[in-house]
Amino acid sequence: MASIEITNARKSYGAVDVLHGINLDIQDGEFIVLVGPSGCGKSTLLRMIAGLEDITSGDISIGGTVINDLQPKDRDIAMVFQSYALYPHMSVAENMSYALTLRKTAKEKVASAIENVAGVLGLNALLERRPKALSGGQRQRVAMGRAIVRQPQAFLFDEPLSNLDARLREQMRTEIRKLHRRLGATSVYVTHDQIEAMTMADRIVAMYNGIVQQVGTPLEIYDRPANIFVASFIGSPAMNFLEGIYQAEGDKAAITLEDGTVIPVLPSPQAENGQHITLGARPEHIDIVQDGSRPAVSSNVELIEPMGLSTLVHVTLAGKPVKIFTLARPDLAIGSQVQIAFNMDKTHIFDRQSEQRLLPLNEPRHTQQT
Amino acid sequence: MDGEQAVNTMTDVGNRPAARRGVFSRRVSGILEPYYYVSPALVLIVAVMLMPLILGLSYAFRDIRILNPFSGGFVGLAHFQTLMHDSAFLGALVNTAWWTFGSLFFQFTLGLVLALLLNRHFVGRRLVQALVFLPWAVPTFLSGLNWAWMFNPVVGPLPHWMVSLGIMETPFNILSDPDLAMWGPIVANIWFGIPFFAITLLAALQSIPGELYEAASIDGANTRQQFFSITIPFLAPTIAITLMLRTIWIANFADLIVVMTKGGPADSTQIVASYIFTQAFRRLDFGYASAIAAVLLVLLLAYALGVIALRRAMTHADS
């Protein structure tokens, strides 16, 4: 087990810069999830750690040793690929023991290691099979087993669950998490699925356009997104965004939307009166107010999606679509007017130009930002 | 005609009560119908492949000499009995093995090396890939003539080069030396056959997922270990099928030999295929030539069945 430090790592293909100076410290035993849309550079970063891509400049070290120029095999890492990359002509047992055999590990040791890992992953009955005779989930398990058998310093996962169906993905998610807790191995996990990121990570690294947008625990990222990208990428259903102008007076502040609707927000010392703002509110932080108990604004009901546990109400406010998540089952008619209230403490404001979040008065800057 | 009826049942089904047509005849025409569609191909195959084959095989049991108007009678196994004691034929059999496996070994080895080189990324790779295919595009008799000239010390450079390299003491034509003559056509055949292996193996190489090499490199395999544990197992099916096909083609491939040495000197480069050619078109003894061809056919069939059985045994052991 080891920590991984990435210092100002850059990657360019010719004139195209893919990663613009990544800095990241991964603690020993930590489960880090790199998340972002495709093309954001997360896989490239992972492959640079693995040694499958050169590092254009900067340093990557594992356990305190700079590994920039080491061959993948000398980095003592294991990787699980999206396609699993199992050796098709080898049995499950041979696939898992390949690395150990190459290291000339004693046969008895290999056998006991395989038995051990197969037991953990429930692969005992499949050891003699070829990968083509396995289901997707089983292949995934074998790929995991191949990584675990070696007891590497760090595990690298490149979208390992994206080829599985939804139910299996959910199941493997918890299994990987349990395995991590059991093995305590430093893990770097790449995904474009924000739910995987939220549920699995000790810390999430949100990436976009080759830049780390924010690093933090899942709840930090969810509650205090650094910018509009992170706010919109993390969370499902996604955050609502409305454009307006910031007005503050004393210890009160509000955003005036394009149609004149006024929504109160927490005042921010970083914002100025008249500044163009994007207001962000998660669907669960907007309430439907039917009894007039709170100050509310009027909106039009467009669509109601009942999901059993909860209901998603689509409304329009100032001409923009807004989604409201509620555990109640509101009795609303499509096309009718409904009063909604924004939960002021949970509503964010972003500078429209820089897209950075403007912090409210009492919130310290304790999430890492770039 | 039955064919028309079959079509009618297809088109008139809606107009006619189903009961009026017998279930049996409908079933029969249903079974026959696909055969009508493939019949043009079947007729062609029978006319240009099956008939000549049967006719050719029948010649093997008859005395057919073009210049002898009284020939044509049935001679039973006489040709085969003669063959058993025909030292030229037995020599040709040995030469065929020599020619086939000598060519095949170098064609395959060098073709594989070339495929591995072409599988790397370098500037102008596509151009080189196209150029590599060129020997295949040259008519074989032209290749044969060129190589014959190249081995000729009067007009060709090869003997002089070999002298410079110390392989030869004085420049002479290896094609006229009974001990060495076979190497002439073999060298030409190697040159001619490398592209086939290079291109087919390159195609197989390009179908290997790159992630397997990445996984192996992370698992700790060096280039040599990756070659033996990923590349070779992936290429194995292609290697098996191409080696089998090429063995049969080369064993039957007399063009280069006929052009370069005409089987000489003193039958030292005579292979079975060129011996058939000599018997049929030089001595005009079609009966005897057909008998030799029949033997060659049986030998190659036995070889192919052997290879298929071996392959089946190997894939069964696999799964």
TrEMBL record, chain A:
GO CC terms in record: ATP-binding cassette (ABC) transporter complex, substrate-binding subunit-containing
Coiled coil segments of this chain: none
Domain ABC transporter stretches: 4-234
Superkingdom of source: Bacteria
InterPro entries given in the database record: AAA+_ATPase, ABC_transporter-like_ATP-bd, ABC_transporter-like_CS, ABC_transpr_MalK-like, ABC_transpr_MalK/UgpC-like, Mo/tungstate-bd_C_term_dom, NA-bd_OB-fold, OB_MalK-like
UniProt-listed Pfam families: ABC_tran (PF00005), OB_MalK (PF17912)
Any GO MF annotation of the entry: ABC-type transporter activity
One Gene Ontology biological process: carbohydrate transport
Alphabetically ordered keywords of this record: ATP-binding, Nucleotide-binding, Transport
Entry's family note: Belongs to the ABC transporter superfamily.
Protein name, as recorded: Glycerol-3-phosphate ABC transporter ATP-binding protein
Species: Thalassospira profundimaris
